[in-house]
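JOB MANIFEST
job_type = single_chain_structure
chain_count = 1
residues = 176
[input]
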Amino acid sequence: MQLIGEFPVALDNKGRLRLPTALLRQLSAPTADGTDEQSGYEFVVNRGFEKCLTLYPKSVWDAITVKLSRLNRFNDRNRMFIRSFYLGAYPVTTDSADRILLQKPLMDYASIQDDAILVAMDDRIEIWSPEQYQSLAAIDSNAFADLANQVMGGGEEGAGGTEGPSLEDIFGSSGI
C-alpha cells in the first residue's frame, strides 16, 4: 500500500472528519462480489510521534501488532514501547458519509480542534493540527538536504550505511 497526498479537512462539533474521496480511492480494494463498494473502511487510530495522530488501515495495524507480539515483554524497554504504542489506540470505521470519529483525549493530545491536515505516508495516515503541521513543514531546504544525506545517503545510519541492521532489516519494508 502506497498512500500519498495532503488533505485539509474540517471537523464537526462531535469530532468527526470526512476522509477525502481521493484518499479512500487509494485504499479501495474490490469486495468479494467484485465491486469496489464497501460498507465501511476499518482503521485504528493512536497517538503518533511529534504530537500528531496516526490512522492505520486495519490490515496494517494487524501486521504491526504481530511484530509487537514477538517482542520480549520481560525487557523493560520493550514493555515501555508497547504500552506507549497502544496508548490511546482505538478502532474506527467510516460511517455512510465516510466520516470517522476522533476521541477527545486524542484530539487534545494532537491539539486538533476545528480543522486538521491528513498526510498520507506509505501505508498510514498522519492527522495533524494545521499549526503543528505548518511548524513541522517549515524545515529549511538546506536542513532537509542534510537530513536526506544522513538518512538516505549512506551516512552513519543511512540507507547505504554498513553500521548495524537498518530499521528495514528489523521490521521489514513496512516498518512500524
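[summary]
The CA atoms of residues 39 and 96 lie 8 Å apart.
The chain has a mean pLDDT of 87.
exit_status = 0
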